[in-house]
User: What shape does this take?
Amino acid sequence: MLKRRLRILICPFDWGLGHASRCVPIIQTLLNLKQEVIVAADNAPLSFLQQQFPHIEFVRMPGFRPVYSKSNSQIMAMVRSIPKSLRSFRNDHFLLEQIIENHHIDAVISDNRFGAWSRNVPCVFMTHQLHIQLPKSMKWARPFVDFLNKWYIKHFDACWIPDFAEEPFLSGKLSFPHFRNITSHRIGILSRFSNIQPKEKEQDIDLLIILSGPEPQRSILENSILSQIDRSSGMVVLLRGLPDVSNKIDVPENICVLNHTDDNTFAELVCRAKKIVCRAGYSTIMDLIVLGRKTWLVPTPGQTEQEYLSDYVSTIFDFRSVKQNQFNLKKIEALNAPQKTTVNTNFLSHFLAQWLNSI
Assistant: This one.
């Protein structure tokens, strides 16, 4: 029995849909526990979560969007974005204090928004990336990057890691070992498909392409794949990952284009597809594991987290990995579907109930 009804603020990072996507089971579980949930977001994450939960309260919280390069290296682009990102963290912190006061917030769950912390209410930081991966040329900077990451996370009361409780961890060395002197909990993998059981259907889609992530690399991969598709490719479904876009693009008749779709349709498309190509985003990988499908992972060039994940899960969980500049549609083969992973939603409910009672 919970002590009282609380107002919980959820703040997903504004970088693609992955952070918003994995907040869905958190939000749904809190609502099932009869708590009030308010979401602070912007751009595509805001549109996505408004579609998921049209009846809850939303606050616009301007997001930070890193500028990505068209090249395969993102080092200089990331370096140039550091001043902007630090200003964004600072602005998030001051805006959060206003939101807490104006909306009578009792606690905050921040998914990778470093500035979304306060000393006035309990605040949790959720991430699978305690140890940010660096290019080989910058390995010397890892102690400093770990120190900086830990310094920001220490502003929060606890760190939640969406991952299996026991090895092999889905995030690998991204989340292991834990930082000392920071209260950390592995809360299980988070997928918005945990409670969806798609009906078994004939695999009548020859290729499903699931796009996501920041521009311009999202569009570069999209254009590369479209240029390789012809009538011999069979039936192709392109899911663009653009919930806040309504325009269509001109494509051959054998390609079905969807800017975005609801969860049930997404799960059905995944089950109907013979071959699947997608980015190596952590939330995408969690979703596919829950749905019981292996895919070809194409990491965003220069995004070291995805480059590491695509190689790691290809070794441990038997996915396949291919670099964007080496992607060849003719060489993409179908992969056998693994056993579906059952997510213990009762564990998440019990964990959140304990956390709520501690506030």
Summary: The first strand starts at residue 7 and ends at 12.
